[in-house]
Specification:
Blueprint (H helix, E strand, L loop, with lengths): L1 E10 L2 E11 L4 E5 L6 H9 L6 E6 L2 E2 L5 H7 L1 E4 L11 H6 L14 H6 L1 H5 L10 H14 L4 E5 L7 H17 L3 E6 L2 H7 L2 E6 L2 E7 L6 H11 L2
Parallel strand pairs: 3-8, 3-9, 6-7, 7-8
Antiparallel strand pairs: 1-2, 1-4, 4-5, 9-10
């Protein structure tokens, strides 16, 4: 389980996160919702180790990880699918996926079959350069790369951004399948309300660097609860 406890984060004099706390449990999809610029990506970077926090603590399975370097967190089981995907455009699909081998012992350096079961198009494109794929295919590639690290915690930063509807459905099915395995905690950052609502077990809403609402998924499905969450997402 991921536990984020009262963390703060600064970019110079600007404070991006203000006492943020949340949990992401094994076998569940925890959704973090909010408009652009409210601190969602800063939180993902803090958990993954790409930005140092100014205060508070981040723990995984009861052990603090916030002082670890990103590669050390990866070895502990943290994997990120970043906003914008960040695939290597000149490497082949196969080579992009194999960059996920970095935190693994030599005997574990194989591409998991589930990556191709979820996204069969990637198996057909192993020799194609990553930069030649469509945006949706690149997103599938980024998820496959993350799965190759055998994560305990999967961080997904707006996986539906700029993606065609058919691939959004494929990504939704993949996230649901990973949840059902029961051996992974998934923290999903999303602005697309319907996508988050249909996948979430629990949700948090951010505004101006703070958690302003949270609850069980049932509270997002109809009535005043759904209306309340949608208000926080309205520009």
């Amino acid at each position: 389980m991921l536990n984020v406890d009262n963390i703060t984060l600064h970019y110079g004099a600007a404070q991006a996160l203000k006492g943020v706390s949340l949990e992401a449990k094994l076998g569940q999809v925890t959704c973090l919702l909010g408009r652009n610029g409210v601190g969602k990506t800063s939180l993902i970077r803090a958990v993954g180790g790409r930005r140092a926090i100014s205060g508070g603590a981040i723990s995984l399975d009861g052990g603090e990880i916030h002082k670890l370097r990103p590669e050390q967190r990866a070895r502990r089981g943290v994997a990120t699918v970043p906003q914008g995907r960040e695939i290597f455009p000149l490497l082949s699909v196969k080579e992009n996926i194999e960059t996920g081998f970095a935190p693994l012992a030599a005997k574990e350096r194989t591409i998991p079959g589930e990556a191709f079961e979820m996204f069969p198009i990637l198996k057909e494109m192993l020799g194609r350069r990553g930069g030649d794929l469509s945006g949706g295919q690149q997103q599938q590639l980024a998820i496959a790369r993350a799965l190759t690290t055998r994560p305990k915690l999967l961080l997904l930063d707006e996986p539906t951004e700029g993606i065609q509807p058919s691939i959004i459905k494929d990504i939704g099915r993949a996230i649901d399948a990973l949840r059902q395995r029961g051996d992974m905690a998934i923290l999903l950052v999303e602005q697309y309300f319907e996508f988050a609502r249909d996948l979430a077990d629990r949700f948090y809403v951010m505004d101006r660097g703070e958690i302003v609402a949270s609850g069980e998924a049932s509270e997002m499905k109809g009535g005043e609860g759904e209306a309340r969450v949608r208000r926080w997402l309205t520009v």
